[in-house]
Specification:
243 residues, alpha/beta, Ubiquitin-like (UB roll), Rossmann fold, 2 domains, 9-stranded mixed β-sheet, 6 helices, 35% helix
Length: 243
């Protein structure tokens, strides 16, 4: 009796294992019989649109519901410039489910690229047009240093009324800050930049005392001080224009 039970169990197991093979041979799982006809997306789009996603996944839908490779679908969607990642799943009998996570830009990088809030550099055709984002520049392999120095500069100038809008690190290791008013603050050698910036911040209230406009240039590379240039008075500018 026990032998008969064992045999019955094995028959069920064999039948279950063999079913997909039989199904393929008989065309039960063919794309024409079980096509993917619906796409459901969960996403909050600002830069990516549904047409781009449809175009990315369309080449992968021809195999039908059962043969659809979810990994390949995820890769195709994640390859879109503004997509950070994608999760794909299937819902019986004909639906592809997509959850799409879009990149959130934090700053511009070397004018032609953007940096996401996760610290990933990515390229989009319109990168240069995002002028409201901080303008960060430097060697590609030192991007994290530039971002870190920008964050330090924001903290240093908090409460001064100056807004730091950009940071540049040259190939020779020289730092320059740019303000939202268009002023340049040259700090020079990266090894001395921190101390020079603190000295400038400490003296800043005295520097701006008596001035109603913003300085346009500050050179902090002096041993015991710094040089600040102010815009020409309107009257002087008019006189120079007449001569």
């Amino acid at each position: 009796m026990k032998g008969h039970v064992r045999l019955a169990v094995w028959c069920v197991v064999v039948a279950l294992v063999a079913l997909p093979i039989v199904g393929v041979l008989n065309g039960w799982f063919a794309a024409s019989r079980w096509p993917v006809t619906k796409l459901t997306m969960q996403a909050s789009f600002k830069h990516v649109d549904a047409q781009q996603i449809r175009a990315a996944i369309l080449p992968h839908l021809g195999k039908g519901f059962f043969a659809l490779d979810l990994g390949e679908v995820q890769k195709a969607v994640a390859a879109l410039p503004w997509v950070a990642s994608a999760e794909a799943s299937k819902r019986w009998p004909d639906t592809l489910l997509l959850r799409v996570y879009e990149r959130k830009p934090f700053a511009r990088w070397n004018e032609k690229q953007l940096i996401s809030r996760q610290g990933v550099v990515f390229s989009v055709p319109e990168a240069a047009s995002y002028t409201a984002l901080p303008d960060l520049r430097g060697p590609d392999d030192q991007m994290s240093d530039v971002v870190g120095f920008y964050a330090d500069a924001l903290k240093a100038f908090a409460g001064t009324g100056l807004k730091i809008a950009g940071v540049t690190l040259t190939d020779r290791g020289s730092w320059t800050l740019a303000t939202a008013d268009g002023a340049q603050i040259v700090l020079g050698d990266r090894a001395l930049a921190g101390a020079r910036l603190r000295r400038f911040i400490d003296a800043y209230p005295q520097v701006v005392a008596g001035h109603t406009d913003h300085f346009i240039y500050a050179d902090l590379r002096y041993t015991n001080g710094f040089a600040v240039r102010w815009p020409e008075p309107a009257a002087a500018a008019k006189t120079a224009a007449r001569t």
